[in-house]
Design brief:
By secondary structure, the protein is mostly beta strands. It has no helices and 9 strands. Helices cover 0% and strands 70% of the residues. Strand 1 and strand 2 form a beta hairpin. InterPro entries: ApaG_domain, ApaG_sf.
């Protein structure tokens, strides 16, 4: 589990290996990740977009940009949190993800970036 706080917004990520399967004659490694976005600031905020960089051990990089998370643009009041689970596929048993959310502070009407810390994706059978 990794955590990081940016401008009073705490991001915590937990990961799990979900298994392998074949797609287009290649083995893929499936991972899930649970993200908790906790508002430790004094202002209400809204998450409106995301940016991910997904790296695998074969030096492949996939960038993903989109609105909200899982089709939602959550408003998070002070002292509250939003949690969701998503996933990704890698073509290697190791990888990492990092990124950021774009949010708006309702008190100041300013947009700001919240860093999603780098987190590792690894299959348990490939660890030493």
């Amino acid at each position: 589990m990794v955590s990081q706080i940016t401008k009073g917004i705490k991001i915590t990520v937990k990961t799990d290996f979900e298994g392998t399967y074949f797609k287009n004659h290649k083995i893929h490694f499936a991972f899930s990740y649970e993200v908790t976005i906790e508002n430790q600031s004094k202002d209400s905020v809204q998450l409106y977009s995301r940016h991910w960089e997904i790296h695998d051990a074969l030096n492949n990089l996939e960038k993903v940009d989109g609105e909200g998370v899982l089709g939602k643009k959550p408003v998070i009041k002070p002292g509250e949190y939003h949690r969701y689970t998503s996933g990704c596929l890698l073509t290697s048993p190791f990888g990492a993800m990092k990124g950021f959310y774009r949010m708006i502070n309702f008190s100041t009407s300013k947009n700001f970036k919240v860093i999603i810390p780098t987190f590792r994706l690894s299959t348990p059978f490939a660890l030493n």
